[in-house]
């Protein structure tokens, strides 16, 4: 048998160093290129990546993984094994992902605790499962034609069902048959190694850990018992396996990957020891030592210690990343503006490949790499630019534990009512208004330097004026300035805060063709000057109605950034919290009476393990409360959440202690209101307009949702608002929808 490569990675960014796949996808969807052009572009990109990875040192056979989905790896696997039908036709594949005239898209949700989103297969007991092995054979063949022996990639059967809706375990035996068919086809095509990811073993999912372990045993003993199959490389990224670890050890796969990243070991320090005990020498061990989802230069000495602690001879262990590198940008080489001091501390995907090879070579064989790593570790620890004593002291002086704004909601609410004088069922929006082509162009021109600061400010103010006038004319009650100045709700603040570094080209796939450029928290965070006051104050000067100040909360800023690995997340969260508290104070001074602190990502950082969740929610809640801790009782603090099912964390949302909470609800038909009475005692705005769709909701429909809400929430605590910001919509939908919001409210109030 071909031995497993010594150096490998779990996956590589698919989107292209210059986002070529994104452009090709969007051109194809828009009808600008035909299917053949699209396919050949995607093929060229894949082959380029293989060549590039070989140039970077992945020269052994099967060292290069072919995780090459066009839209999403879960959808790709589901189509290949036929758990979801539609794997033959490109347009059907995209219809599943994006919807079309006749079908709604599959639901999308977060992939483990990353910012990547996968498509959730919809499955049912007794359904047909018909594999389409051609899909994966094509990938193998095209690679072979270009001279590469790549490792085809699939999500494993247990994880695939665990992530589907519902998790229909009765399908497992027939699903295993489909995998067996794909395996046989691969073997016949001459493939010697296949890579199968089973991260279901590292998370507490709807199926309990112990059951996952059983399913793993039954699925894999069946699959491994097949005669015609490639060697199986089973991987367990995104955390440590607990109950399933002994089972993984006993399965008898040819190679097993474990996630030994610093992040994982921080949560489970004993993991290497347990791995050593559980995995027999007959199974080749692949140590996921290099962090696949953060951007810090590895401490090669410390990583070598972890490698050695596995107690394996050099031939019985390989080095890899902890997860696919799809979660980090391609290369530092594409960056021109990273401070010279910071650059050596960073490793993006390509730089991580060098780290892997250094670990394989060992200190003797890679003296320079080890010396560089030592220097990075030392200069980062000693740097005076990223360590800010004033910030550290300020946070250390804060009261410990749960802080609480005084007076309590009831009393604040009285003052706020008098101060604001709002009507029954007040109407507001979530913040952003449509980002018009003109605004995007102004921002781009400003960045390029062809539009001066003064001209750019003029353009923004003109936009704000229009947005305010429109809201006045339609008759909304609490206005917003529209967020025209923000490219992105996190990036905007990261650029203005000290302690962050932003990239020019650090694109990371979020889902499908969507990419984000996460900022990097490099050090202690502070606010050199006001960030949003100018815009909010200008907007307020144009209206007698209250204009909401608009901030992104500390948890969301952190969730959508690359995080520090030298302090706990809670430390950065506290620092961002107090920086934003200063912004709240400045907004108040500028006459802003309502301030919204968005926390759409509160659910996203929820740890994968049940045991770790309470501690997370505690610091997350604290960081949020720090922002409003010193706010005047008369200042009405709003928060906004979206993107997920809140059932699990609804108590924590209530615990943010905002005066008003707006929350996504329209699509789920207000399901979340069921037991809201017990948890929520403050004011609440369940979204009554699904802004994720271009549809304009009628006034009757909105009125219906409001009446439904009134069954659970008393009149004096209910707000009227859309599900989320309006930046992705156009004015032609926004205007009539907002008018319908007003009409619906008026109608409902009349009937009270
Ligand atoms: N205030 C932001 C906006 O309206 C909130 C966006 C979000 O929740 N994702 O765009
Ligand atoms: Zn939202």
UniProtKB/TrEMBL annotation:
Key words, A-Z: Amino-acid biosynthesis, Metal-binding, Methionine biosynthesis, Methyltransferase, Repeat, Transferase, Zinc
Comment on bound cofactor: Binds 2 Zn(2+) ions per subunit.
UniProt: L-homocysteine binding residues: 430-432, 598
Cofactor(s) the protein requires to work: Zn(2+)
Binding of 5-methyltetrahydropteroyltri-L-glutamate, residues: 22, 115, 514-515, 560
Enzyme class: transferase
Name of the featured protein: 5-methyltetrahydropteroyltriglutamate--homocysteine S-methyltransferase
Source organism of the structure: Corynebacterium haemomassiliense
Gene designation per UniProt: metE
